[in-house]
Amino acid sequence: MKDFLSFFSSIRWQDVVDIIINSYIVFRSYILFRGTNAFRVLIGIALLWFFQKIALSMGLIITSWAIQGITAVAALIIVVVFRNEIRSVLQAKNLKTIIWGVSQKTITTPVEIITDSVFELSRKHTGALLVFPANEDIDEFVQGGIPWRGVVSKEMILSIFWHDNPVHDGAAIIRRDRITDVACILPLSHSNDLPSYYGTRHRAALGLAEVSDAMVVVVSEERGTITVAKDSQTYSITRKEELKQHLQEHMGDMPKSIDQRKEKIKISVAALVSFLFIVGVWFSFSRGMETLMNIEIPVEYVNRNTEMEIIDTSVNSVTLNLSGSGSLIKSIRPEQVKVKIDLGKVTGGKNSFLITDENVSLPPGIALKNVSPPIVEVTLGIPVVRELPVQVDWAGKLPKNLALENVKIEPGKVRVIGGKRILDKISSIYTDKIYLDNIYYSGAKTVRLSLSPPSLRIAPESSDTVTVEYVVKKK
């Protein structure tokens, strides 16, 4: 659970924006190019990239290199081979459509297809007999028939009743959006009060409507008229809206809503897959391609008791071994990394602190691998004041013809604040170095005091500089 929370805490807001933008780009590419050959090749490239990462994680160097080369070539193929297809897709849409909106496919329901087909048959004076079963089984009334099992389309209906087609004289049975049987023979009506112009098709349609709850649509070959037979009644159809209403009342219009739901589900799945794909790519680059670096950071001490002083530390800085993606590692600035030790609960004397993740502040996406040294020792104590003599830290040599005759330091003593243990070991305070090589005459210099260790400091009543007067003479 801790690792899970640590992972999410390492995600930057830039990573979230990056994933959202690129997921949307992939999703828009699907919306614009779905159904095209270019999109199918693009899916293949994505699969190649996926297998290349698997090969790389398994240490299959040659296989990974080969797949990577194939992927590069395939990407070039998309641009070169399918440039016309890509251009036609982009040219057919305005900028708003490209950036926003989901173009819905034009969904034609079986009722609309059948209606258009019937009126096309009527216009061409092509005889047709279409049966639409309802709840009752019509198999006992229908003879012959050839199984068809084709999806309803205008072209299929017109081809079935084309006069040179061997099955055009029989009836076609349509269940929902499928043509299940053709060349079927229907029972003839024995009614004596039918119009004289009714032919065999009309008698067959009414015959089935008399013995079942099926609806039958007849197109007259001689007159091109359209007739609907249902519940032992016939209805003459002159407008598309009339036929469409009869069909909708009899068989409903469910396929349209089903197709729309399928389309919405397909788009939702595409959006989810786009998001997961980009998350996988981001994870591959941000976590899979791990880069290491070492950086030296000074140690900061916080919440120190004001009555105590840091007398001594084992180190003043630690080296951090960090890991992360190459781009994040390169962007790290030293001021973004902090190492802090909390002195709020420590006591006087020597204290040891183990440097862990809690002590280190890092930019999101960067992980701490190692700390050197892992332990920092801090000695604290109540500060004391000591008055110590000042000595000059001479360096170099005077010219050969000169000799240092007299030295006077003003003030000769200073008061120093520090830990008792350290001050017990110090007998004097030295100045910064004064180089004898540059002295040719008697004179005076003002120099700063050099405090070692750094935990020592000059008391407020004393100055951190002294004046050194020196007298030289010729040998």
**Main sheet makeup:** 7 strands, mixed
* Secondary structure tally: strands: 22
Portion of residues in beta strands equals 25-35%
Q: What strand line-up does the widest sheet have?
A: 2-4-3-1-5-6-7
How far apart, in Å, are the first and last alpha carbons? 82 Å
Rg from Cα: 47 Å
What is the name of the CATH architecture of the largest domain?
3-Layer(aba) Sandwich
Q: Work out the helix count.
A: 13
Percent range of helical residues: 25-40%
Write up what this structure looks like:
This protein has 475 residues and is of the alpha+beta class. The chain folds into four domains: 10-103 and 273-287, no CATH class; 110-252, YojJ-like (1 (3-Layer(aba) Sandwich); 289-381, RNA Polymerase Alpha Subunit, Chain A, domain 2, CATH 2.170.120; 384-474, YbbR-like domain (RNA Polymerase Alpha Subunit, Chain A, domain 2), CATH 2.170.120. The chain is built from 13 helices and 22 strands. It has helices spanning 2-9, 13-33, 37-57, 61-81, 83-91, 95-99, 110-123, 154-160, 200-211, 240-251, 254-288, 326-330, 420-425; strands spanning 128-132, 143-151, 171-175, 178-185, 215-219, 226-230, 233-237, 290-302, 309-313, 317-325, 338-342, 349-354, 360-361, 367-372, 375-381, 383-395, 402-410, 413-419, 429-435, 443-450, 457-458, 465-474. The strands form four sheets. The chain has a seven-stranded mixed sheet, with helices on both faces. The chain is rod-shaped, with a radius of gyration of 47 Å. The model has no long low-confidence stretch (mean pLDDT 83).
